[in-house]
Here is the input.
Amino acid sequence: MSGIRRILFATGNQGKMREVRSILADTGAEIFSMSEAGISADVEENGGTFEENALIKARAAAAAWNDGQGAVLADDSGLEVDALGGEPGIYSARYLGEQTSYGIKNRDIIARLDGVPEEKRTARFVCAIAAVLPDGREFTVRDTIEGRIGYEQKGEGGFGYDPIFYVPEFGKTTAEMDAEEKNRVSHRGKALSHMKEVLSRNEGFDRQ
Here is the structure.
């Protein structure tokens, strides 16, 4: 078994790619985004769960990427706010429209929680990652990070809903964490580390 030499991560989000490259750096695999691999795969994310949507993206990217030694990874992640019945959930990227800035999305969520007490502002980030291997095997993992919705946007790091996601254990939002700290505790960081273990057990990495 020669192991995985290349990984295509099915995203065009550069903030996400920075996290992916940092966490998977020790695998020795070359890591590509969709644009870097020169492919595009427009898919309708019509799954009912994070795992289903991640698999939809990974399968579409794998079908477009003809590489006998590469694994394709895709994630679907989102914010679940308990006081909003779990919204925006799997619709996090499409909440208020895909072209709407996250500054507007974040302000809207804060406004919807006006008057909600601290103890009921609980929320979590969820990340499911799917992998499709050259031989057709598929794997999925899911991880979360628990926190609360803040009262204002804080922090310049991260992306998306990070500025409103407050983690009491650290006394800051995930947008206020440095990259190393965030990768260690975030939903995506934990899920990527989990998937790295799954791939290492089932396929291995070619570090030559």
